[in-house]
Amino acid sequence: MNKDIYPKWLGKHILNDSFSWDKSTRTTFPVLLEQITLHDSQWYTTFFEMDNSLVMVIELDAVWNKEFCYNSEEWPFLIIRFNNVLCTFSNFNRDDYPVKTISSAETSIIDNIKFNSWYNSAKDLGILSKPFYERDSKNIIIHRTEIDTIYSGTSTFFHAVLIETLFYSNMGQLLPIQLP
Length: 180
Fold this sequence. Notes:
By secondary structure, the protein is α+β, with helices and mostly antiparallel strands. It is built from 4 helices and 10 strands; from the N terminus they run αβαβββββααββββ.
């Protein structure tokens, strides 16, 4: 991990998987995107946890999100955990590294009939691993989230509705999240 990119406290949380999820704010990605924009924010990393959740570490642009960031000049860190991630697709280029600058983010609900059709076809073709089909994935509402970078990189993932969010100051102090 590059010490010049990650604040020391953030690197420790990432390496030790020690974020304070018991203090997280639970919401949905559409509700979060009604309150903030990820435009011009810095996307530091994404990693999976053992429970099949995906964690994104984003330094939130305080200029575009003044009110949400408590009118701070410093850019705080937004940590998002997407639960029950079914699959991801990413395509980045060398200009997206070491930190990606987000251009846009959007999310939508996947039509259940279309998802079940895809699910059955994927199962018949053996596209995904057996544990995927052993989960109760057919009976949950699925969101498709896409995050694009300024250099035409993209990441798309399919996940359950509920997300968890944490908000840290640039110095690592846990901050309250104000959502409706």
